[in-house]
Structures are given as C-alpha cells and as structure tokens.
Amino acid sequence: MHIPNGFIDGPVSAAAGVVAVAGIAVGLRGARRELDERTAPLAGLVAAFVFAVQMLNFPVAGGTSGHLLGGTLAAILVGPYTGVLCVSMVLLMQGLFFADGGLTALGLNITIMAIVTVVVGYGLFRLVLRVLPARNSSVPIAAFAGAIVSVPAAATVFTFFYAIGGTTDVPISKVAGAMIGVHVLIGIGEAIITAATVSSVLAVRPDLVHGARGLARPLELRTAGDSR
Hints:
Number of strands: 2
Number of domains: 1
Strand order of the largest sheet: 1-2
CATH topology: Arp2/3 complex 21 kDa subunit ARPC3
Structural class: mainly alpha
Largest sheet: 2 strands, antiparallel
Oligomer: single chain
C-alpha cells in the first residue's frame, strides 16, 4: 500500500501532509499520558517489530502479496497516540532508507497506514471489548476484529485520495475493486498476526498491554488466616 512519488498529485499530497503533521502532533501530546518508565521501551520494540514484519510479504491471491500494516497492533500494545508515532517512524525510515513509499507521498502514507489504521482499528477494538466479558481472553478477539477492518478501511481512504488526485489513467472503479478486494484478504492476515502477537504478550506480561488495562483483577495479598 506504500504510495510512490507522483502517484497522487501535489495538492492532494500536500493536504494529506497537513493531516499527517496534525496527527503526529496530537500523537506527541497524547503519548505523554500513555508512556512511563515501563512502557517507553516497549514502544521502541513495537516500532522495531512493525518495521521488521512490514518487510515480510505473504501471498494473497492472483500473484499479489501483502504485509502487516501494524496500526491496530501498535495501538493495542502501547496506546493509540503512541501507536500513530510508532507506525509513522517506521514509514519515515522505510521511505528514507529503503525507498518503500515516496518521500513526497510520506504524508499520504502516514495518513493512510498510521492514522487511519489506528483510529479505525483501535476504535473498533474498544467497541468490541465493551460487549465481551471483561477479561484478558477477550483482548485477542477484539484485536482480531479491529485489525481485520482497519486494513480495508485504509485501502478505502487510499481509493478516496486516488479519486481526487490520481495521476494515472486507471479508472477509479478498477482501483477501488483491486485495492479494497485484495486488502480484505490482507486484513485476514493482519488480524491473525495481530491477535497472535497480542495473545503472546498477554501470556507473559499482561501489565504491558495498553488495551488490557483495567480488565485484570489486581493481585490481593492474603494472610494464612484469611478465609476469603
């Protein structure tokens, strides 16, 4: 889904850049409330993990392939504000050192793959978590739901940008069909990876999963004579 230079025209790319800068600014402000001495190192690990997994493609259909976007995963592990920053940093590094997404399209890529995936994926995650039992085992289920929707949502926003600023002669109907259809399948892979990763972290350090805070009952210290 990385957009190269020149695929979307200058005005639309600039407008998306403004959205991206605003999103990062909000993320920086909100991350102060999400990070502490325990979770700050986790944010770096999450960014590194998303960077590494985005470099791995898995086959989808018709000769196409997909990779993890990571917005929902990052938001669940370290919080939505920090999640936007993590994925944005990954996209910046990929554009600078691997030519994976154009630098003039960086605002587009951040808006689509960092902001949209976090807002949609984490928003749906919280919504699903409200209707499920309040226990840690519900977190991977809600994570799966959020991740599977976040990817086609990002593809839909890409299609919108292409509709108003695309520079190629490909009809919008074909772009929409190809992008959204393929990314529905990619979303399944994203959901599986997200749920499995969140479940693994929950199994060893549930206290570090931002999306699981408030679900687990705090530990109680009992004495030998306490019969409760």
